[in-house]
Amino acid sequence: MNAKWHIAQINVATARYALDDARMSGFMNQLDQINALADRSAGFVWRLQSESGNATDIHVGGDPRLLVNMSVWASVEVLFDFVYKTAHRSVMINRRKWFVKPIGAYQALWWIAAEHIPTVDEGFARLKLLSVNGPTPQAFSFKRIFSHPGVEGEPRKPVREPHCSGWK
Length: 168
Hints:
Blueprint: E1 5-14, H1 25-28, H2 31-39, E2 44-47, E3 66-73, H3 76-85, H4 89-98, E4 107-113, H5 120-133
Antiparallel strand pairs: 1-3, 1-4, 2-3
C-alpha cells in the first residue's frame, strides 16, 4: 500500500426491474449487509452514499434503474479481496439475475491522491476514458491493473477470478 495514493472505483448497472419489484429483492435485501461489510473491511476509505446509507437513491442520467456505486480503497488488492473474497462475491455471481448486460465499460479503476474524494462526474469521465481508449493508467479494470503514479513498468497481469470475467 502507498500512503500517497488510493484506488477509486466506479461501477454502474441498470436494474432489470424497479428496485421495489420482488425480483430485485435478492439484491436489495443484502445491500445493507454488504455496505456494512465494506465499511469495516481492511483498506476501505470511502463509499458513495446518500442519507439512506446506500447509493440506490442517487439518480444520474434520468433513469431511476441506473445504479452507481463508487468507493475508495487503500490498494487494488484490498478492493479485489472485498469484491471477490467476501460475501460480496455472491452479488457478482448473481448479477445477471438483477442487472441488464452493459454496453461498454461499466467499471473503472483509477488512482487518486489519498486526500481526494472522487465525484460521480469524475467517475463517469473515467468510464468514458476506458470505453474510448481501453485500459490506460487513467482508467483501467481488474483485468489490466496499472501501478499508481510514479511507478514505472508494464501493467500487472490480469486477475484470474472466475467471476471477474465480465458479462460474456
